[in-house]
Amino acid sequence: MGQLVPRLLLLLSLGQLALTMNFNYGLFENFVVSEKVFKEELMLKERLIKLKEDLVKWKREYAEPISEAQQMDEELLGKFADYMKAASNSSQLLSDFDSQTKTFGGQKSFSGALRGLLILKETYRLPVEDITSGVLNLFSPSSQKLEVFKSRHTLNTHDMVDLAGTAIMDGWIDDAVDLTKVGMAMLEKSGELESKSVPEWLKEHLRQLPKMKSMLPRIQNELLEKRRAIVGQDFKLLPFAINEQLERSETQPEYLGDVLAAIVPSEENMKFGGDIKEYKFRSVCRRHRIGGAVRSQEKFTKCSYLHHNDPFLRLGPFKMELLLYEPFRMIYHDIFSEEEMRWMKEYSTPKLSQARGKSEVNEKFKRNTKDPKIHRIIHKTIQVWLKDKEYDDPVMYTQIGEGRYMQDEFEEDLQKGKVVMPVMRKLGRKIELATSMEVLARFASTEFQVTNYGLGGLCETHIDPLGAMEGAYVDAGHQHLVSTGDMIATFMGWLEDVPAGGETGFDLTGYSQAVSPQKGSAAFWIDLERSGKRELRSSHGGCPVAVGSKWILNKWMYYYDQFKTFPCGLDFYDQFRPFKGVY
Fold first, then answer.
1. Which domain holds residue 28?
2. DSSP 51-101
3. Considering its fold, how many domains does the chain have in total?
């Protein structure tokens, strides 16, 4: 019992802290299970708090030996019985606590955190010294200028070992060199290898730094000579040879001119994605690349009141900021109410899920990355889907070939059903008015998706439509595209401001642009040409969150149901133009 009580008190303190902090651990996998787990956690929290109160009270009031005069005190004996009952149940309580917190972390989460720090360093060109001290200079979307952000945490020498090792494993040799140099300086200054107070197993961990320092020059220089490039599908290097001190060598190889030219991505690399495309995308997140087409169209970009020539909207128009005339890209300002944003976050928080099943399309993509009919599916970090209406009858499909489906015949009214989320149904109607698109019909749009990105959270570059109307491979998970057509437009709203990072970056050369999160506003852009062909200039991704977290709402509209206001064109290359009904 002597060792059990301190352990219980420690776990109870940690448990109370974890359960009262506003963290999203990505524990939940589906609606039914998530609600069950959420309720179990609340019950466990109450049990932990109650047991802590009992144990603390017992320790404070009854830790002294019981005298003979007290032995017959029935009240005391009753309290002692209560304590023994609590203690006898403690093993089960500890088991429950361990079970509930298994997904709060682990080696996978630790490795993910290390890679998240590396991506933040690389994306925003953060000096290693700033990262270790926890003081960062970053661009703030709200103030539109550089600001200083201070963290409560700093990095130690062991952290540098883990970060540098992860960088080497991932092939990010340039970052490994930077981290190892600073780590070695920290190691020499701390004197930890000579200290008698540092356990031997910790010293063995620290000895990895000198080992990495000795092997990095060979890795960097040999890869540079062999690959003749500084970035590729599985490596990222410094643009020069280095010496044993990890500094730039005085003499440099003659082929370096060709190496520097090789970082310009080819159309093939940009089309099929990968490390080269992401390397260029990160410069968009740093706002170093503003596309030529974006600059040339600045005379068209302006703020207006949007009414679509609708009498109702003329009295209460939407606030519209045109970002790009072609391809059409814009922002709706102040489109969400505080009540809508609060409801969506509160509803979504206990249901957020990072669970993913295997994607048939992605498995095919791994086997044949160069097949133009196979496109990799991008999965968001932690998400929940919100269904505003449930329909009475399912839609059935029959496979008629590889990657080809046909909707079965039906006699029922497939639009018949009941509204299950009035808040989201009302919001869907608002999006209909704002976009002049069909949104509420069964085949007109996707369900609502709420996504949360934590520190370092990002979304790699992609195009939202699958390419189904161009003959792309369609798996069973996308068989509904037979009824809906591909995604014609994206509506993406921000439910919170982001202190730093988290922009949506459009990365295609000439059309690159970083759009900052703005609470209560929403970005809107067109994903298809009028022919139904994918608009490749809509390629975009989510820049990593540097400070805070990012909450967004997504809604994708489908092609077929938009024939009234967004009809197909006679010319194969016809584009959809910006809205005209504006003040």
1. 4-104
2. HHHHHHHHHHHH-SPPPHHHHT-HHHHHHHHHHHHHHHTHHHHHHHHHHHT
3. 3
Is there a domain that residue 362 lies in?
Answer: yes
State which of 104, 136, 171 marks the end of a domain.
104
Least trusted range by pLDDT, from 87-101, 280-294, 507-521: 87-101
Q: Are 63 and 55 in contact (CB under 8 A)?
A: no
Residues 252 and 397 in one domain: no
pLDDT for 170 beyond 80: yes
| Structure confidence at residue 74 (pLDDT) | 54
Residue linked to tokens 């000795």: 214
Terminus-to-terminus CA distance in the chain, angstroms? Answer: 76
Query: Does 221 map to a domain?
Result: yes
Q: Per the domain annotation, does 169 fall within a domain?
A: yes
Q: Which residue has the higher pLDDT, 43 or 252?
A: 252
Alpha carbon distance 407, 480 (integer Å): 8
Phi-psi region of 47 (alpha: psi -120 to 50; beta: other; left: phi over 0): alpha
Last residue of a domain, one of 104, 125, 158: 104
Instruction: Find the mean pLDDT for residues 492-501.
Output: 96
State whether 78 and 147 are in the same domain: no
* 524-543: average pLDDT: 94
Place of tokens 């107070």: 197
User: pLDDT band at residue 475, thresholds of 50, 70 and 90?
Assistant: confident
Which CATH number is 221's domain given? 1.25.40
Residue 274 lies in a domain: no
For residues 225 and 258, membership in a common domain is answered with yes
Residues 44, 178, single domain; the answer is no
Tell me the CATH number at 381.
Answer: 2.60.120.620
The helix (H) or strand (E) run that includes residue 100 is: helix 90-100
Q: In the chain, what is the greatest distance between 2 CA atoms, to the nearest angstrom? A: 101
Burial status of residue 430 (CB atoms within 10 A of its CB: 0-12, 13-18, 19 or more): middle
Q: What is the mean pLDDT of residues 508-523?
A: 94
Q: What would the two tokens of residue 313 be? A: 């909207």
Nearest to 558 by CA among 432, 428, 430, 445: 445
Distances (CA, A) of 197 to 183, 189, 193, 204: 20, 16, 10, 14
> Do residues 66 and 164 both lie within one domain?
no
Q: Which of 110, 109, 86 is nearest to 12 (CA)?
A: 86
Q: Are residues 129 and 232 in the same domain?
A: yes
Three-class DSSP category at 222: helix
Both tokens assigned to 128:
């290693």
Asked if 355 and 487 sit in the same domain, the reply is: yes
Reported as a pLDDT band with limits 50, 70 and 90, residue 125 is: very high
Q: Is the domain of 492 the same as that of 392?
A: yes
User: Is residue 226's pLDDT more than 50?
Assistant: yes
Nearest CA among 209, 147, 211, 216 for reference residue 182: 209
User: Which tokens in the block code for residue 529?
Assistant: 């040409």
Amino acid at 478: H
What is the C-alpha separation between 548 and 498, in angstroms, rounded? 6
Asked whether the bond before 327 is cis by omega within 30 degrees of 0, the reply is yes
Instruction: Please report which confidence band the pLDDT of residue 8 belongs to, taking 50, 70 and 90 as the band edges.
Output: very low
d(CA 89, CA 256): 69
**For 182-191, how does the pLDDT look when each residue is reduced to its tens digit (9 = 90+)?**
999 999 999 9
Matching residue, tokens 């609606």: 31
Could you say which DSSP state residue 147 is in?
E
